[in-house]
Amino acid sequence: MDSVPSYPRPEGVYEISHEKLDLRPDSEVDYDLVQPRPVTGEKNIWFFWHRGFAHMHPYTRRTVRAWHRRFSKQGWVVRVLDREPGSPLNVANFLDVHDPDMFPKAFLDGTIGGDYAPQHTSDLVRWPLLVKYGGVYADVGMIQIGDLDGAWNVTVGDPNSPYDVFSYNAGGVDGRGLTNYFLASGRDNPLFQRCQKLFLELWAADGGRTSTEGMHSSPLLNGVPMMGGELSFEEDGKTYGPEECSKLLTDYIIQGQVMAMVMGLVDEDDGWNGPKYVSEHVFATDYMVGSQLINEMTAWNGPRQFELMSLPLPKDGDAETADQKLAREIVEACLAKSFGFKLAHGLILKILGDTLGSLWRKHEGADDVPETYGHWLRHGTVYWCQNELPPRLEFKEAPAVKIGPLLKEGRLGPGANGGVPGFEAKK
């Protein structure tokens, strides 16, 4: 790589030996990323971009490179799968895209539609990849900060560890809201196997769906609170109130509903007790500090985040401005406390407006300007490692949401419609 800027290293992190990093030029790293390597173990980092790595936005390519630079020498293989005809990284070269137990008809036919077809296509590949191969599935907008290898080695990667799943969780210790933008497990994980079955059943409804629209109303999800709370937005002169917004958001993040149901399901005939499994086998860290800290520190104001991350650091002898102080505090907090940072895109833009991710997309290269706070943050995600691993939310066995078969209506358990703070149910 080119000369490395000298940035102040926050407390709580140490410098990684350069021998443990892949610091070759971007072109050489990119060459490796587009060459399909055979799967030989579970230390896989899976991404999906429908048109492939070469057609990703520059800021997301930088994110994927950072994963590779940081973890490839520790045995991790980064792959960005796609749906491009003839591509060696086409999903079809890793999964049987004609298997109805793996993909719905719309995926096989290429008829997935709606405003967010690429996002829903990516949703459909993450559980099959994890179930077949194991590893980590992350959205391309997921910036890794913490020690992935260290966390893996004491959870999923340790055969003596009780933890089979590693992720973020919304709602604190009482919530059951795993985020689908970062999921880690070994092969044949029983939680994700059941999630996949339920997900496919939702897609198969009404003779086969071509989008997730309306999935929030499926009786198979009865008892799981919808997302959105009191959120609303306007578009093209029309106001979408809390109820409409909740339905849209729930359909968009329907995988979250699926995971919540499986985690809350007790199916004695199948030998599945989701609440007990979560309490004993899921290692989840809080999603707000763990992956959304910059949003919390700026009241989810994307333009403000872009402004702060674009600021230059003070020159020698210059006094730090109030905005530079806030930008510094954000970078220091994220690098020391957050396991990652999820850049938001998709439907959330209609609700919140521009995000840091959407603005980095619009202003190409803005995240890669040396001596800015955004570049400092980027630098730290490659060259530094946190002293401590993320803390686990100490789950207790929660009341069941549903009692009965996974793919049939059952009776609601005492935990039905309990709600998740920040993702309140609509009564």
TrEMBL record:
GO molecular function: glycosyltransferase activity
InterPro entries: AfumC-like_glycosyl_Trfase, Nucleotide-diphossugar_trans
Pfam families: Caps_synth (PF05704)
Organism: Tolypocladium capitatum
Protein name per Swiss-Prot or TrEMBL: Capsule polysaccharide biosynthesis protein
Highest taxon of source: Eukaryota
